[in-house]
Amino acid sequence: MCGIVGYVGKRPAAPILLDGLGKLEYRGYDSAGIAVCDSGKIQMKKARGRLKVLSELTHDGEIFPGHVGIGHTRWATHGEPSDVNAHPHFNADNSIVVVHNGIIENYLKLKKKLIEKGYKFISDTDTEVIAHLLDYYYHGNPMQAIIKIMHRMEGSYALGILFKDHPEELYAVRKDSPLIVGHTRDGCIIASDVPAVLKYTRDVYFIENEEIVCMRQDSMEFFNVDEEPIEKEPTHIEWDVDAAEKGGYEHFMLKEMYEQPRAITDTFSPRIKGREICIEELAMSDEEILNIKKIMIVACGSAYHAGVTGKYVLEGMARIPVEVDLASEYRYRNPLIEEGTLTIIISQSGETADSLAALRDSRERGAKVLGVVNVVGSSIAREADNVMYTWAGPEIAVATTKAYSCQLIALYLLAMKFAQVRKTISDTELGGYIEDMKRIPDQVEMLLNNKNRIQKFANRYLAARDVFFIGRGIDYAISLEGSLKLKEISYIHSEAYAAGELKHGTISLIEEGTLVAAVLTQENLYKKMISNMVEVRTRGAFVLAVTNEGNHEIRKAADYVIYIPETNQYFTNSLAIIPLQLFAYYISVGKGCDVDKPRNLAKSVTVE
Ligand code: AGP
Q: Does the pLDDT of residue 79 top 80, yes or no?
């Protein structure tokens, strides 16, 4: 996600900004920029590409002598990576400049109102709306302008702001996106994350939601949204830089697992308006949605597993036939594409060679192609007819967690939208699904907080040689993902099986003590699953069950049970995957594997 740095003090700001942004590079970005206030003028440089480009453009910051500034590394969410979409963003006369981390969910509505008032926009970003909104409310008092926009913006933001006619001041404010501030020897510094400030201070103030900070060279004042001064205590940071980059987590994978509630919220929240599902980027009329005859979902790895879940949800809710293909198979099987086919290419990186080839093949055969992609401006995002982004933020760990969870959310939203238009679900049912979706982030958080119990269980299986994941229906999809997570980061052989398939061969592999993870979240399949669990248990297996709270029948067929909270039949994968992610993670840690960079694997497979 984006990185923010700001400084006000005795020293030139630009070199400090560039240094701080360099410490935030690990967060992933595609462009960067800085703005510095000097003798009543705001100077700015920003560019697509690595920080090196910006350092060269600014001669390592030497061209900007000012002592107050803000800087930004951008991970694109709205608007492709480009010079013009890079931050900082500014108002028409360059008197107000802002950097932003987060997503302004109602930016299109605000942008429309500002355009009606004569404002002109040059970028596609939600952040530029903030600059013009500040301009609209600014009449000489920065605090009042900031408080006004806080009442108008919906979504998440951490902001660094400069006002030309307040050249000695730096402002910061946040809601749902992290922001810290601290004193340096000779001024004040703000940043999105601890690594950017450790060189200057280990005593930082974590800004809380809707708190505003006004900083000058020798003062730092905190206010609430009612402009009342507040007292804050600093926190002393013990972390080293490496730990700080992971937000104090031992690995990026664990950090990203814990980012899932936020990522899931960021992915669905802008697309649910009351009782409506609004997927602007789908760019399909109701008539086009009614005319969809078949959906083909094509992807690789975990994205493919999300697609298998998508099949059950889209067919169950919207009653549209769905085929799911591995991209490496699809591209060579001469697929039959009839009129009314919608192909959905799912990809976190948007650069997976097989998935990109499948996209091109599908388009050539006349299908309309929708990308479900995490990296803005990636090849698949650019070549699809339309793209629905999963706003998971940059994913550093090779084993995907938060991006996969956001792919599930995107597929649920598509199913709800299609079902709503095709009237295959009632308004009441849709309302229920919307309420269930809103509960997912807290439910995921609750399951993540169960990590100690999972870790204890995982430590019993560090020496496992074969692990089997079994499930029926939508639970088979989650078994696929649970199995891949385990094998790719712990190097333990694992297989996922449709539970009903075991007796057709695989059950011969079950020995005394073999671990079998049974996923059963579909009430109509409980009995069938329990008989499969009994089958393997009588042959010596140790059965771990992942099932719904309240399914007490399970005790007679499982040796160890993990419960997931109540949700509807379609959303259970979003919950059941959490203990399986944790299980894989703690086995990998226990075996001393390289969790974030497993052997033989790359984050993005850009070759066949
Ligand atoms: C997921 O944990 C794996 N690292 C891998 O299977 C990945 O999902 C697959 O390579 C697809 O990548 P993509 O989503 O970037 O296209």
A: yes
Domain-located, residue 606: no
Q: What is the mean pLDDT of residues 594-607?
A: 82
User: Going by C-beta distance under 8 Å and a sequence separation of 6 or more, which residues neighbour residue 227?
Assistant: 143, 144, 147, 212
Same domain, residue pair 506 and 575: yes
Question: Which amino acid residue places its CA nearest to atom 5 of ligand 1?
Answer: 301
Quote the tokens at residue 569.
């039949």
- Write out the catalytic residue numbers: 2, 603
Written as six digits, the tokens of 479 are: 């078994």
- Predicted model pTM: 0.84
Structure tokens belonging to residue 244: 């700080």
> Could you report the per-residue pLDDT of 290-340, keeping only the tens digit for each?
999 999 999 999 999 999 999 999 999 999 999 999 999 999 999 999 999
Q: What is the mean pLDDT of residues 455-465?
A: 94
| Residue among 225, 352, 350, 346 at smallest CA distance from 297 | 346
SS3 45: strand
Q: Are residues 241 and 364 in the same domain?
A: no
Ligand 1 atom nearest residue 380's Cα: 16
Chain centroid to CA 48: how far? 22
First to last CA, the chain: 29
Shared domain for 431 and 455, answered yes or no, is no
Residue 590 burial (CB count, 10 A): 16
Q: Last residue of some domain: 198, 225, 245? A: 245
Are 489 and 519 a contacting pair, CB within 8 Å?
no
Q: Are 15 and 60 in contact (CB under 8 A)?
A: yes
How many distinct structural domains can be found in the chain? Answer: 3
Which of 131, 144, 139 minimizes the C-alpha distance to 214? 144
Q: What is the pLDDT of residue 25?
A: 85
Q: How large is the greatest C-alpha to C-alpha distance in the chain, in angstroms?
A: 81
Q: Within 10 Å of residue 109's Cβ, how many Cβ atoms?
A: 13
**Identity at 333, one-letter amino acid code:** R
Residue 299 CA to residue 229 CA, distance in Å, equals: 52
Pocket lining: 347 vs ligand 1, CB cutoff 6 Å? yes
Q: Is 328 in the pocket of ligand 1 (CB under 6 A)?
A: no
Give the distance, in angstroms, between the CA of residue 497 and the centroid of all CA atoms in the same chain: 29
pLDDT exceeds 80 at position 284: yes
State the CATH number of the domain containing residue 583. 3.40.50.10490
